[in-house]
Amino acid sequence: MRLTDAPDGLEVTFLDEGRSVRLVGIDWRPGRALFHAVLDGAPFAAEVSPAPEGFRIRHRAAAAQVRVLTPLSADLHERLPPRKAADTSKLVLSPMPGLVVALEVEAGQRVSAGQTLCIIEAMKMQNIIRAERDGVLKSVNAKAGDSVGADEVLAEFA
């Protein structure tokens, strides 16, 4: 997305969609939580909160991270290679923070998809963590009685 000055407001170009919209009558200053304007002739409001290098903007169910950059910084950002998502296909991650109350597997064990690996208690509810695929466990990184955080690695497949 790119913002450019227009005679009476801003033009917002969605680079990946090949379309533009016009914002006029803008009523917002940095530090204010609500942004009001007229978007292509219709009243428009969005929530605005600070974020690294810019702002996070929410409108209904949509949210976007908007960077505010100098031309040089924008040029440098465009030259960066795209960030690759981490490969977590061999990892079993904790879906929530909690307490490991039971661990039913050990390193080197062959497991089947759907088999119970461990049970995590969170908010007085027990959550069964199951294997998502068949395989051999390379390592088990938790034991009964451990506190774990969200997205903490519980086990790893070979």
Supply database-style keywords.
mainly beta; four-stranded antiparallel sheet; 1 helix; elongated
Short description:
By secondary structure, the protein is mainly beta.
Explain what this protein looks like in three dimensions.
With 158 residues, this protein is mainly beta. The chain is built from one helix and 15 strands. The chain has one helix at 71-79; strands at residues 2-6, 9-14, 19-27, 34-39, 42-51, 54-59, 62-67, 91-93, 98-103, 110-111, 116-122, 125-130, 135-140, 147-148, 153-157. It has a seven-stranded antiparallel beta sheet with strand order 1-2-3-4-5-6-7, with no helix packed on it. The protein has a four-stranded antiparallel beta sheet with strand order 8-15-13-10, with no helix packed on it. A hairpin with a 6-residue loop joins β3 (19-27) and β4. The longest helix is centred in the middle third of the chain and has 9 residues, at 71-79. The two termini are 41 Å apart. The model has no long low-confidence stretch (mean pLDDT 91).
| String of helices and strands | EEEEEEEHEEEEEEEE
Mean pLDDT: 91
Question: Strand order within the widest sheet?
Answer: 1-2-3-4-5-6-7
Largest sheet: 7 strands, antiparallel
Distance between the termini: 41 Å
Which word captures the global form? elongated
Summed up, the helix count is: 1
Assign a percent range to the helix content.
under 10%
Strand content: over 45%
Name the structural class.
mainly beta
Output the radius of gyration. Answer: 24 Å
Strand runs, count:
15
Low-confidence runs of at least 5 consecutive residues? none
